[in-house]
Every structure is written in structure tokens, then in C-alpha cells.
Amino acid sequence: MDTQPVLRLEGIRRSFPDGAGGRTAAVDGVDLTVSPGEVVALLGPNGAGKTTLIDIVLGLVAAEDGFVEVLGTTSRRAVTSGRISALLQTGGLLPDLSVRETVKMIASLHRNPRDTDEVLAAAGAAGFASRRVSRCSGGEQQRLRFALALLTRPEVLILDEPTTGMDVNARHDFWRNMSSLADEGATIVFATHYLEEAERFARRTVLMDAGRVLADGPTADIRRRAGAARVTVTWAPSDAELAALDHVLGVERHGARIELRTDDADALARELLTRTGAHGIEVASASLDEAFRYLTAPSDEKEVAA
Q1: Is the pTM of the predicted complex or chain greater than 0.70?
Q2: I want to staple 28 with a disulfide (CB 3.0 to 4.6 A). Which of 34, 182, 211, 224 is the partner?
């Protein structure tokens, strides 16, 4: 089994002029290693540095500092060989060509492309293949870009907000296709603002903010960083009783109900049942959305257990 990373980034930095004579760091010292077959979600608020990082991986933007290796070589060589491909938020499409003509034209630029009908079907674009690009919706144009990305049989797919403009059914079909590619061994790295997409399809989550990596690991581990669950009880404790509880990261009162954010729901539930008068206990797993909001919040807004 090949254990060589498909992506290796060390100390990546990139800044841009801020319009006031200074520079703003878009990517600020990012280290990232991706192994073959991983499905990785890049999450972060607007301006977190996700798109700039993707552009650096693809060789579209040069890093000011740091080391980039893609499939054991440079970004340019990996892209030129077709071993890495991308579906970006934007990209020039000729409006007067049909969808099928566009795929055929781009296929002619590659040495050994996949069959046109095959990639159109895989991208969910076969149903509008004869339509002019100018008459395609935003979601349909994204599916066309996806078909183009599949032409070279890439080992690595980089996706930047890939389902933007797609309706619910198209998004479902897109991720079904992505899951099939992942099952076949493709490595997929995608940036998305749809947290449910990361929740369902990413086997690993990298959370970025202000150009830096805040958290990196399996989604369950990311949840644990912000509190793996919420335990809600009916109880009227004193401040001292609350302070004495173990595994509590945050407390919210809602009338007679108290919601406790915790890193160990089982241990906290046992403690509440055996040591306190709490009753009506409900346990709910933390979502990636909660972890996202907590880990990107200003530090003075985070509640930290004593």
C-alpha cells in the first residue's frame, strides 16, 4: 500500500495588499498532509484562507514561504499530467458551445481522456448535454465543470464550494458520485460552507480561520474539541453544585431546564443521576455546526471548564 502523502504542505504563507499600504495574511503558516484515499473537508468562515490554500495547491498562486509537494512532485507537473484535477467556484466556459462540445474540446487537449458520454453521465450532465453553456443554470455549469475535472481520471480531486448553485437533488447526486469515486480510491479535498456536506461526506475535517488551521482530525474528534454532546436536565442547582460537576464545558439555563455542553456525555449523565437531584435527562450529540461556531468564536466568548 502506497503510504506517500498525495499532498504535503509545510509552513505555507501568502498575503495580499490590504489597500492601505500594508498586507493581509490570507494563509499564515499552514501545515497540511493528505494521504491517499482520504476525503478531507476544509471548513472556515469567509476570509479563512480556504480558497487561497487551494489555489496554492493547484499552482494558481505561489506561496511566499513554505514547501508544497503534490503527488511527489510540483503542483504544475501534477496538474499537467492530469493526476490532480479541480472543480473551482469560477472558471471560463465558452457560452456559445454546447455542454457536449465543451467536454469534447477539453478532452482533445489531453493524451488519454475518458469517454465524453462517460464523464457527462458521471457528472449528472447527460440530460442537458446538447444545451448551450449560456443557457445552463449555475448548478448545471458546475456539473459541466465537474465533468471536465473527471476527464483525466485524476488521483486527486480538489473541490472549492462544488455544489454552489445546485438544487437539493443535484447536490445529492453530486455527493453520491463523489462517494463512489472515494470508494474507488480517489483522494478528495473540498471546501464548503454547507456544514452538512462535511458532516456526511468528509472522513476528516480541517477547520481554518484567519489563515490558520484551528483543528484537524476526524469529524468526531473535531466535535470533541468543542464538546462532544449536550446534556439537558430539569434541575435547580446552586452555582457550587454546577461548579462541582466534572466534564462540563459550558452551561445554559432555559427556565427549569439546564443545558450542559460536555466532552463526556456518559460520565456526566452518570454523575447527574447518582449524585444530584437532576431528572428528565436528554443527551444529544454535538453537530459539526456547533463545533464550527465554537472553535471560530473569539476566545473571550468561549466558556472553558474550570
Answers
A1: yes
A2: 211
